[in-house]
């Protein structure tokens, strides 16, 4: 089941905090709503400036409990309930589309940059809308084989409060019931990709780097299994945002 949401055209990027976004406001970003849909004929998955349509897959699905528990642990019961009940409006999806566009635009396609890109994405999204979003860290598997993360599910505040070179998990944004992953396709297309991930994703991407927007259920059906272990707190996110902005030569005050 696919629901097509009509979204307003992507606004001009003149007000973006990212200088490169202002410079190349007419560039294009493609958005994959479900890898299963990526190979369906007749479905336009290109999302770019002025494109009015955003396709969202598997609208019948819900947020898994294994995600709500980390939200409760890092924030509050009210935040977990808000996420459970949050259904993005067309305007909020349009804000997400613009944030994805800008984040992918301003960062070079470096493989393995999931934390940096997700932090930048949430920073920009929060400048465009009050819609709730969360940065999720965990494991990622292709089928039953891990490609990022370990069988040890231990993850705590120390993982992100300091430099931790031993952590090899994955990071994505949660927007309602949707996984928003803007780094995985870049990694899959790179020479540094785990072979299993490259073999799974590359045939579906056609050589084009894309962003993933899909429910947990849709991704699992496609063979990509996202396993949330921790939802980052604001104290953990702020240094990541500062690091992302520093890469761009900016600061939080810009």
Please provide a written account of the structure:
- This protein is α+β, with helices and mostly antiparallel strands and 254 residues long.
- The protein has one domain (2-247).
- 38% of the residues lie in helices and 21% in strands.
- It has helices spanning 19-23, 65-74, 77-85, 90-106, 114-128, 158-161, 184-189, 195-205, 216-221, 234-247, and strands at residues 2-6, 28-32, 46-48, 53-57, 134-142, 145-148, 170-175, 178-181, 211-215, 224-231.
- The strands form two sheets. Strands 2, 3, 5, 6, 7, 8, 9 and 10 form an eight-stranded mixed sheet that branches. Strands 1-4 form a two-stranded antiparallel ribbon.
- α4 crosses α5.
- The radius of gyration is 17 Å and the shape is globular.
- The N and C termini lie far apart (42 Å).
- Mean pLDDT is 74; it is low at 1-11 and 19-60.
């Amino acid at each position: 089941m696919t629901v097509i949401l009509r979204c307003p055209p992507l606004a001009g990027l003149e007000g973006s905090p990212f200088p490169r976004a202002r410079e190349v406001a007419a560039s294009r970003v493609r958005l994959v709503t479900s890898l299963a849909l990526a190979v369906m004929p007749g479905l336009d998955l290109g999302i770019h400036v002025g494109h009015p349509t955003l396709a969202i897959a598997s609208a019948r699905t819900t947020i898994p409990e294994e995600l709500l528990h980390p939200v409760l642990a890092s924030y509050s019961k009210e935040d977990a309930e808000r996420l459970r009940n949050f259904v993005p409006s067309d305007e909020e999806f349009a804000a997400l589309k613009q944030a994805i566009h800008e984040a992918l635009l301003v960062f070079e396609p470096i493989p393995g940059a999931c934390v940096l890109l997700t932090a930048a994405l949430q920073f920009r999204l929060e400048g465009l809308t009050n819609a709730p979003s969360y940065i999720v860290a965990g494991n990622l598997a292709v089928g039953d084989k891990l490609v990022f993360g370990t069988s040890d599910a231990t993850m705590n505040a120390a993982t992100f409060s300091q430099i931790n070179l031993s952590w090899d998990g994955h990071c994505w944004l949660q927007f309602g019931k949707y996984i928003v992953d803007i780094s995985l396709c870049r990694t899959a297309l790179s020479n540094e990709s785990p072979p299993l991930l490259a073999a799974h994703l590359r045939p579906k991407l056609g050589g084009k780097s894309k962003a993933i927007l899909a429910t947990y259920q849709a991704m699992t059906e496609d063979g990509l299994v996202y396993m949330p272990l921790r939802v980052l707190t604001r104290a953990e996110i702020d240094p990541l945002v500062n690091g992302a902005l520093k890469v761009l030569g900016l600061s939080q005050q810009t």
